[in-house]
């Protein structure tokens, strides 16, 4: 799968983010720094854009949270849920009805091609 990626710098204690923009119906992804469930301003702008798009579309908004495999399974499962919850809360803040949002914590996943790809939330509209 080919992705266009946008990077946004953030302080070390906050989450750095990049987003992938896919054709309609595909996932929009924001990435987090290690051990973080907070997004910086640039990533929040990406979520705001997704919220604007979601308000014009039908169907549920799925928010899938992921974490890398390093550390304990229980910790990473909770981290993936916290990441998904943070993004869901932002979507609501930006005007998406909470009852449309489905949080799906996926827990720890093996490192992808690049370790940071495992530390992500995928947002899917209508899925």
From TrEMBL:
Naturally occurring in which organism (per UniProt): Roseomonas alba
InterPro entries for this protein: Bact_OuterMem_StrucFunc, OMP_bac, OmpA-like, OmpA-like_sf
Annotated protein name in UniProt: OmpA family protein
Source lineage: Bacteria, Pseudomonadati, Pseudomonadota, Alphaproteobacteria, Acetobacterales
Keyword NAD: no
Protein keywords: Cell outer membrane, Membrane
Xref: Gene3D superfamilies: OmpA-like domain
Domain OmpA-like intervals: 19-127
Subcellular location: Cell outer membrane
């Amino acid at each position: 799968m080919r992705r266009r990626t946008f990077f946004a710098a953030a302080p070390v204690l906050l989450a750095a983010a990049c987003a992938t923009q896919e054709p309609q119906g595909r996932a929009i992804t924001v990435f987090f720094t290690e051990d973080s469930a907070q997004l910086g301003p640039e990533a929040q702008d990406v979520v705001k854009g997704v919220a604007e798009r979601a308000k014009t579309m039908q169907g549920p908004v799925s928010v899938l949270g992921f974490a890398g495999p390093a550390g304990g399974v229980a910790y990473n499962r909770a981290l993936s849920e916290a990441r998904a919850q943070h993004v869901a809360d932002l979507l609501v803040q930006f005007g998406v009805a909470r009852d449309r949002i489905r949080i799906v914590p996926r827990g720890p996943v093996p490192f992808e091609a690049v370790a940071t790809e495992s530390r992500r939330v995928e947002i899917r509209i209508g899925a």
